[in-house]
Amino acid sequence: MGLSVHPEAIRARIRRLPALMELWADAARKKDALAVIKEFQDSIENGKIRPPLAPRTIARKKKLGMTKPDNPLRGFGMEKARTYARSLRLYKITNGWRVKMPAIPHHSSTLKMDALFQIHELGKVIKTKTGSIVIPSRPALARAYQKVLQNISKGEIKEVQEACAEFLRTGKTHKGDDILATAAALERTYGSAD
Question: Please, are residues 90 and 30 in contact by the beta-carbon 8 Å criterion?
Answer without folding.
Answer: yes
